[in-house]
Design brief:
The chain is of the alpha/beta class and 389 residues long. It has 13 helices and 15 strands. It folds into 2 domains: 11-259, Type I PLP-dependent aspartate aminotransferase-like (Major domain) (Aspartate Aminotransferase, domain 2), CATH 3.40.640.10; 261-388, Aspartate Aminotransferase, domain 1. The structure holds pyridoxal-5'-phosphate (PLP). The active site is at residue 188.
Length: 389
């Protein structure tokens, strides 16, 4: 079976992990700050705060921006549930902004409309979390202008987009946001097994997130409320969590950063090959990548224009029977039973719902060979053509 995503692990990665296992530090040693520095340098951003998942990073990012009871957080319905859950962890309310169907990304024009309405009813969001779907940045310049105008903060959920670029800058540089989040789950671009990182140029946000990832406990004299009782002394000054990344994972992450550009190149090679195979096929529309973006192609998605939900299920099953683990990203978050209980319904975000009824995710990862891509393209083309015949 060809999976839809797969990590690439080489001897350098294995050696980095083994060396760390043999060292004095399995947690809270030098590897975590080294990984943070390596990825921050790559992204041209000042601070990286490594944690045990992107979900944890989203949670402490919201907390560091002061999200709490009664606040509103808006995100994309076309995402993994973690993009929305993080607001609920903080006691805030979640709402969604519909997407641009050609990119799968949160639509800046829909955001502008929704903000205009919310301003009238005094229900503006405190934070908006655009999600860089499939590895392509949202229109961050437009979103940042709206943030200025309406006074909300921006967290980029860049879980898919490590190594991507927007307007000649790396995603994660935070030029148009307060914080950017990466995920290092094995299906994402680089892996630490489980892991995530929050990037920011704001020293205060970085230090708040560092505090929150480790119980809210500090041993920095400058942060303490009273003078030290002795060399063992520490203080808890906030309610934090155990969200730390360990040194073994961080050593793997730092080794993976060395190959990040190559991974993105390979993923773009696969995407260009698919694009070429599907060009001129009226019923197959690959996601459109804007000229201002280089996607990291975490996912390669096609929309099948003329397809019923039954045919879509048959298509994905048939691909799997042929040894191709096709998938579907994403079931709109607002249609999940948990969110329906909060009052959301089918029909609330029509573009995300229509997108869901037409999309299919095909395999993409660095080691996918040209002949595998041709096999997948041939199989998809013959299945889709049998639909319309
Ligand atoms: C994978 C993913 C997450 C969660 O990442 P974890 O590291 O598994 O917690 C959050 N948002 C998006 C868009 C994702 O794809």
């Amino acid at each position: 079976m060809i999976p839809y995503g797969r990590q690439h692990i080489d001897e350098d990665d294995i050696n980095a992990v083994v060396e760390t296992l043999k060292s004095d530090w399995l947690t809270q040693g030098p590897a975590v700050p080294q990984f943070e520095q390596a990825l921050a340098d790559y992204c041209q951003v000042q601070f990286g705060v490594a944690v045990n998942s992107a979900t944890s990073a989203l949670h402490i990012a919201c907390l560091s921006l002061g999200v709490g009871d009664g606040d509103r957080v808006w995100t994309s319905p076309n995402s993994f549930v973690a993009s929305a859950n993080c607001a609920l962890y903080c006691g805030a309310e979640v709402d969604f902004v519909d997407i641009d169907i050609t990119s799968g990304n949160l639509c800046a024009a829909a955001l502008a409309d929704k903000l205009e309405q919310a301003a009238c009813t005094n229900t503006l969001p405190k934070v908006v979390i655009p999600v860089h779907f499939a590895g392509q940045s949202c229109d961050m310049e437009a979103i940042a202008k709206l943030a200025q105008m309406y006074g909300f903060k921006v967290i980029e959920d860049a879980s898919h987009a490590v190594g991507a670029s927007y307007q000649d800058s790396r995603v994660g540089c935070c030029q148009f946001s307060d914080i950017s989040i990466f995920s290092f789950h094995p299906v994402k671009i680089i892996t630490t097994l489980e892991g995530g990182m929050a990037m920011t140029n704001n020293a205060e946000l970085a230090s708040t997130m560092r505090l929150l990832r480790s119980h809210g406990v500090t041993n920095h004299p400058d942060s303490m409320k009273k003078s030290s009782d002795g060399p063992w002394y520490y203080e808890q000054i906030a309610l934090g969590y155990n969200y730390r990344m360990n040194d073994v994972e961080a050593a793997l992450g730092a080794s993976q950063v060395n190959k990040l550009s190559e991974y993105v190149t390979q993923r773009n090679r696969v995407a260009a090959h698919y694009d070429q195979r599907f060009s001129g096929e009226g019923n197959i529309a690959p996601l459109v990548v804007s000229p201002s973006c280089v996607s990291s192609f975490h996912l390669y998605v096609v929309r099948i224009n003329a397809i019923t939900p039954e045919q879509q299920a048959w298509l994905v099953s048939s691909l799997r029977e042929a040894g191709i683990f096709a998938h579907l990203h994403y079931i709109p978050i607002h249609t999940q039973p948990f969110y329906r209980e909060k009052g959301f319904n089918w029909g609330d975000f029509p573009a995300a719902e229509s997108y869901y009824r037409h999309a299919v995710t095909l395999p993409v990862f660095p080691d996918l060979t040209p002949s595998q891509v041709d096999f997948i393209a041939d199989t998809l083309l013959s299945l889709v053509n049998s639909l319309t015949r």
